[in-house]
């Protein structure tokens, strides 16, 4: 699986460099929508797993390689996003609970605010209310 993932990553990079493959979003788009608190609008027509983790599923792959690609994608999505969101959400909750009179600032990558089971979802399930602070607005 590691060799397969490396080969697919290299093939994607070569396709990008040759102009045969285009990323469905640009970093600037992510930043702009993140600042507006509207990150989900950029992913309405895209698979959220492509935003933060490698995507190895390719329509040109043979059937047996598609299965490998799906297994790797599931693994990355689960390990790099879902489990990390759970860990970070618990750590935030624990810090807030242990120090109720203290102020905190938490920063997370944009990928942790997209799809299901985001850091916000984890904290909301714990009873916290999260509000977006727009760019330029004082905290």
UniProtKB/TrEMBL annotation:
Enzyme class: hydrolase
Known EC number: 3.4.-.-
Gene that produces this protein: Trabd2b_0
Required cofactor names: Co(2+); Mn(2+)
Domain of life: Eukaryota
Annotated compartments: Cell membrane; Membrane
Function: Metalloprotease that acts as a negative regulator of the Wnt signaling pathway by mediating the cleavage of the N-terminal residues of a subset of Wnt proteins. Following cleavage, Wnt proteins become oxidized and form large disulfide-bond oligomers, leading to their inactivation.
Protein name per the record: Metalloprotease TIKI
UniProt remark on cofactor binding: Divalent metal cations. Mn(2+) or Co(2+).
Pfam families: TraB_PrgY_gumN
GO biological process: negative regulation of Wnt signaling pathway; proteolysis; Wnt signaling pathway
Membrane topology: Single-pass type I membrane protein
